[in-house]
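In this supplementary section we document a worked example of the pipeline. Step one takes a protein sequence of length 204 as its only input; no multiple sequence alignment statistics are reported here. Step two produces a three-dimensional model, which step three serialises into structure tokens for compact storage. The input and output of this example are shown verbatim.
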Amino acid sequence: MSVRFFPFANVNNTIRLREGQLLVRLSDLLEGAPESVLRAIAHILIAKMYRKAIEPAHAARYRRYILSSAIRTKAHLIRQLRGRKRLASARGAHYDLDSIFEDLNLRFFGGMQARPKMSWSQNRARNLLGHYDPAHNTIVISSLFDHPRVPRYVVEYIVYHEMLHLRHPVKLRGSRRCVHSSEFQAEEKLFDRLGAATAFLKRL
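The serialised model returned by step three reads:
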């Protein structure tokens, strides 16, 4: 058995069985974690390797630890230092994301939102329409939508949704992450063509 801490860019943990040897790599952010947390990680990794159910108590203990303020702060800094963010351009073949951001900023936020780095994705992802990365202060939109058959209001809605993630950061409720708070959802409903945009996306 080989167990070692590894400088991942995120709080990652891996386990592999190769030629009779168990190889375990834990995020170096977990160095100094309480023994109870390390036992929880061991249980989770072994359970995943053998495709067994994870005991809720172990899952909750691990989740509470990595979602604690101290670990989240460290993870955010590590992502900035170690993580690589490969960006394309904000100006696509049909839509300019910088221009769309500024239009939405004036319409919904009185021009008060600071613009993060904007980029089309490098691949035409269907399973991830867009995302806001707080560690790199970047909004990335799937290049699938940089197309003349995609209405502008659809691109605007996706950008607006990610702007709300910038405005309403993820909150913790106990050991659970609240990604779309009630405030987030209320502001999302202010988008004037919300129904048409979501209907287009469902047909995609």
